[in-house]
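Researcher: I'd like a structural prediction for the single chain below. Treat it as a standalone chain; there are no partners to consider.
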Amino acid sequence: MANWYCSSVDYAAVAQYATTHAYAAGAIVRQLATPAVGNERCFRTAAGGTTGGAEPTWTLTKGGSTTDSGGVVWVEVTGNETYQAAGAWTAPHARLANAVNQGWCVSGDTVYVAANHAETQTVSMTITVSSYGAALCYIVCVDNSGTSHVPPQAGDMRTTAMVSTTGNASISWSASNSYCYGITFSAASGSTLGYGITIGYAGSGGSWQRFEACAVKLMSTGGASISMGQTYGAYVVWDNVVATFSATGQMIGVTKCSFIWRRTAAAVLGTGVTQVLLDNGQSHVLIDSVDFSGINPPSLCGIAYAGSVWALVNCKLASGQAVYNSFALSPGTATDMISTDSAGVAYRHERQAYEGLLTTSTNVVRTGGASDGTQAIAWKIVTSTTSKWLDPFESFPIGCWNAVTGSNVTVTLAGIANLATIPNNDDVWIEVYYMGSAAAPLGSFVTQTKANLLAANATLTADTSAWDSLMTARANGHANVVGDIIGVSTNPGRVFFCTTSGTTAGSVPGGYASALDGGSVTDGTAVFRAGYRFRLVVVLSSPQPQMAGYLRATVKVAKVSTTFYIDPAITLS
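Model: Treating it as a single chain, here is the predicted structure.
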C-alpha cells in the first residue's frame, strides 16, 4: 500500500523545466509548457546533466522515462512519497483527480491532500477513485507545513483543502470504495443533468463512499443541485458534512442508493431552499443528529417513487418546519421522524406513509397512559384515501419486556376514534411478535384481525378509559371547524370531535351529559361527536411465550380517511 501527495500550491512551486540548463543529480522539475488539465506531472533526473535546446515530449505515465535532446534522463515521480518532506512537498500532484486515478492510486492506497490545496478549473471534472473489492482508498487533508510529518500523523489532519470549478462546470465523484476527509467541493454550476455536484456515482454499482468533515457547495445562482447516488448499489455516508446553496431552487437529490447523513451542526448554509431540501428516488436514507434549524423550506423531505424510505433521528428542525408535504405517492414509501423537533423535547415521533400519517398528540391522551416521563403522549393516526386491509398503515413497533413463560399472556392497547360506531377488527388491529419457542429466538406471530380476505370481521371491545385530562375545554360562543376537539366538564373522560363547523351556544347543551361514545351533540350551530373508545387485544396462547424477552406490537389501520388516537403503552396480563 502506497502513499501519494497532492498540493496545488506546492506543485506550482516546483521549478519548470529549462532548456540548455545544467541539472544536478536528483533535480525535480515540472513541464515548461503549460500542460493540459490532468497532464500536470513532476519529473526527476537521477544522474543530472545539461538539457537540450527544446522541451521533450514527456512520458506521462506513472514511473515513465523521458530522455531529452541533451541526453538527460527524466523519470516521472508525481506524488511519490520518497520526494516529499515536512514543509517541502517537492513533487506533488497538482490535481486530486490525477492523484486518485487508477494510473497512480490502487485499492488500499492513501492520498494526502495539502491543507493549502486550492485546485480549480473551468471545465467539469470527474474524480474517479480507483478502488475495488474490500480495500478502500483514503483521501485525507493534512498539514503540509514545516511542523507536519511525512507520512502524516494523527495531529496533522486538517479540513481546509478546496476543489472547485468555475463557469458552467460541475464536479462528479465516482468511486467503488473510498474515504474522504477534510475537503470542500465547490461547483460553480450544473451539468446537463442539472447536478452541480454528483457524489456517490459508480457506474457498476456496489460502491461504499464515506465523506467526513467535508463540505459541498453550489456557488451558481442557477438550478443545479447536489446529487447522491445515481446508481443501484451505492452506499454513501456523510459524517459532519455541510451543504451550501446559492439559489432557492437548489436541493439534494438522493437516487437509487443508501445514504446516511449524521452528526452535523449547521448542516445547510447559504440561500434558503424554497423547495424540498432532500428529494428521495428509490433510496433508503438515515439522517441522524443533523441540525437543519438554519433553513425552513416548505418541506424537508420529498418522496417520489416506491421504495423510498427516510428516517430522521435526533435531528433539530426550524420552528414550524414541515418534514413532508403530503402523503407519500407510492406504496412502500415512508418517512420516519424519531425524537426530532425544534424545541427541547424528545417525544416527537412521526411516520408519513402512503397509507397515512402518525404524529404525536399531547392533548388527546389516555389518563395513566404513555409518557416520556414528563409529558403524557398518544399517537394520532390519520389514514389516507388509499389505506386498505391488505395494505394498512403500520405504526412504529412498540417494544415491551415479557418475563412470563409457559402461560398465556394478554397484550392490550387502548384507543379512541372519531367514529359513530365502534371500529371493527379490519379497521384497526394489533399484531404481536414474541418468542414462542424455547429452542431459538424465532418470532411467533399473533394478529387480532380477521383470518383472511373473505372472512367476516368482528367488532372490537369497548373501553372506558378517560382521554380528556389535557383537552381544551368547551367555551361558549366559540367558532369551531371540523376536526377541533374539546372536553366537556359534564361528561368527564370523553372527548368530542367537531363534525360540523359552527359557533357554540351561550351555555352548555344538556346533550353533552348524556352523550355516549359515537353520539352527536348539536351545540349552537356546531355539531360534536363523542369519540368511540376501544381496546386492541391479543392473547399469546398458541404457542405460549417460551422465552423471556421483548415482544413487539404493531398497530395497523385500514379504515380510510379516519382519525384514530392510540395510547402506545402496552398492558400485559
